[in-house]
Amino acid sequence: MRTIIEPFRIKSVEPIHSTTPEQRKELLIQAHYNPFLLKAKDVIIDLLTDSGTGAMSSEQWAGIMRGDESYAGSESFYRFESAVKNITGMPFIIPVHQGRAAEHILFTFKGGEGKYILSNTLFDTTRANIEFSGAQGLDLLCPEGKLPAVSAPFKGNIDTQKLRQVIEEKGKENISVVIVTVTNNSGGGQPVSMENIKMVRDICSHYEIPFFIDACRFAENAYFIKKREVGYQDKTIIDIAREMFSYADGCTMSAKKDAFANIGGFLALNDAKLAEQCRNQLVITEGFPTYGGLAGRDLEAIAIGLGEIVQEDYLHYRIRSIEYIAEKLDAENVPYLKPSGGHALYLDAKAFLPHIPVHEYPGQALAAALYLEGGIRGVEIGSVMFGKYDQQGKLVPATLELLRLAIPRRTYTQSHMDYLLEVIINVYRNRKQIKGFEITYEAEYLRHFTAHFKPAAQK
After folding, report:
1. CATH label of the domain that carries residue 147
2. Closest CA to 188 of 139, 126, 233, 146
3. Is residue 75 a part of any domain in this protein?
4. Structure confidence by residue, pLDDT tens digits, 259-272
5. How far is CA 242 from CA 84, 88, 117, in A?
6. Does 328 share its domain with 396?
7. In this structure, what DSSP letter does residue 336 have?
């Protein structure tokens, strides 16, 4: 089997600035041990997120120059709208400046006190917008998805038995939306099967509950379906994607992921009445319906990116790159969430650092260790991001304690990944020296973005 090469050539580069361990130690203290608070120039390999951090193609840059910046009725909007309709098949397309804006608009009308939104796993901004509206978000991840060391083809699936049970318990009139995230970001970038999507559609139809897709990484999910699900091996990525969307009543998307754009997103709907409500809200909060907080050049970049993302040679390279990292970690027995997902490698922080209790945030400790060792920036997806407090103020931990290393699209080469592996393996060999953290400051919503930490007191 030959080496999987990057299916692109590099035309423009930006410098990476090196730092010493001593410098990184001081920088981490200044950032209150939170990688979000580091300056980007002080990071050697930035795997904090794959959102808006990828490299655009020459066609996208050319499209930016063609961008029509008319306030209303821009030609760039119509190209954008056509590209979204071509994939989703949905008639009402509402542009927004990024995915969380689509979530905020949607849950302004689908959230509220006493309402529940059910999901395989809600990501941080989705949950925050749900809770901000007064509603509650409930995760119903399939059982195998909660076991990091167990390998299964579709660990991102929603537990359909649990879905029926919760609908019956809460009352269908109190369930405003069921939303399935593809791929399941907070669940380790794991895919959702077409069979599971169909089952959710049937359940939602039976109870007359709207079914939405969080479509940030729809193309990666479609690729996994092609490779792992019977009956889809000979179908194209775009045909699989179209079938996925055909079962949904609407979708939200951050175009900063599977559209290769640096900014932007959309809300796509089948319901004309809901679309009118959302457009009215858009005008108040984002902008006119044909730009939605975006410049014409951004709309062009998204339209072109949506065409590029469904190219199978790119997706093969993308998924294989993550598998490459996983295979090297397997050789060193480094624990990660298996199998490797689409857009990121998720280290199993609880198994990596078993000596650090969950209330001392092993994922955050691992994030700090990787930065100190090699200037790698990742993000904790565990009890810092999703932990809650009970009435006594005691931490209710997240289901999983992970460190996500999200790989920006078309940005780093194999040598960068080899360097990343060297850092991870060295940290693992010296893992017993790593200590936990305490939170010293946190915001009410999305605390992981701005939280401050200090090393946990030693007992």
Report:
1. 3.40.640.10
2. 146
3. yes
4. 999 999 999 999 99
5. 11, 6, 24
6. yes
7. B
